[in-house]
Write a structure and sequence with these properties.
By secondary structure, the chain is of the alpha+beta class. It has 2 helices and 5 strands, in the order E-H-E-E-E-E-H. The chain is elongated and about 65 Å long.
Length: 126
């Protein structure tokens, strides 16, 4: 299964360590009550244990919930938690690097910014 087949899929990291003994229902509850988001949108939700050796990704694939889990053999995952408990947004590329165990050092946007559409002015309005 490809975790994120489309650029329109968003990735959210839970902003605090999570007891990853939680399964589908527990992670679903964290998304709804902790992030105030809908777990059934198809977006990806990343959870990391306090030791940062284990992570889980929860995703709705259209007909059921899926959990991807990884435990690092060596080292730890990057720390994504913030002091202000704000939701951390990742790109799909950042999620892939995170799951590989890469250290996230700094973020530099490579994607173009969203364009704001201006109303079209016809010759009659001028």
């Amino acid at each position: 299964m490809i975790l994120a087949p489309s650029r329109s899929v968003r990735v959210f990291a839970y902003p605090a360590p999570v007891d990853l003994r939680k399964g589908y229902d527990g992670l679903y509850g964290l998304v709804e009550q902790g992030l105030h988001l809908d777990p059934m949108t198809g977006d990806l939700f990343l959870f990391v244990s306090a030791s940062r050796k284990l992570c889980k990704v929860l995703v709705w694939d259209g007909n059921g919930l899926c959990i991807f889990q990884k435990r690092l053999a060596e080292g730890t995952f990057a720390k994504l938690w913030r002091d202000d408990d704000q939701i951390v947004r990742l790109t799909q590329s950042e999620l892939a690097l995170f799951i590989e165990g890469c250290t996230l050092l700094d973020r530099q946007s490579l994607s173009p910014r969203s364009l704001k559409r201006k109303p079209v002015v016809s010759d009659r309005e001028i």
